[in-house]
Amino acid sequence: MTIEIKHIVFDIGKVLIHYDPNIPFSRIIPDEDERRWFFQNVCTHDWNLEQDRGRAWPEAEALLIKEYPDQEERIRAFRKHWHEMVPHAYDESVAIMEGLIEAGHDVTMLTNFAADTFKRAREMYPFLNRTRGVTVSGEVFLIKPVVEIYHKHTQDFGLDPTHTLFIDDTAVNVEGARAAGWQAVQFTDAATLRRDLGAYGITV
Question: Do both 142 and 67 map to the same domain?
């Protein structure tokens, strides 16, 4: 028996909009080996994740500059050129989300995103303002895949977990949603997402 889906929750990065820090940094640090070292040792994924968890950019920059004073300009470039890291939307995915909204489905978003860069993203991509609401990790100081952020989203938006479908590109975030009692699918591309929705009886 197919579970009826009453609520659909979208992740944002790499589901609705593209994200790649190499875009500006291929210009800032042209040497590929040097750039790889920088991302592995200075502006690392884990360092950036703390901004998604709610740490302010000035604090984040100060911590790295203290450790790598010779890299100050490059460290500050990460936030300065962030807008270049999100250069385009995934039009087909956006069309699916907007189609769901227009068809009357209850659509919200749950994202790991720094609070200030998310404000900028909403200016760059107005479709991010179309859903009923959004939980932003940097605003609530919780981050996927911890189960508490899914519970908070459920409570804040009055969702029934069993009848909620989550769409995220990252496997651990999908598993986090399932641990919270949600239905969840891993995003790979728009065509697969249409099939996944269809499996739940949802056509767009």
Answer: no
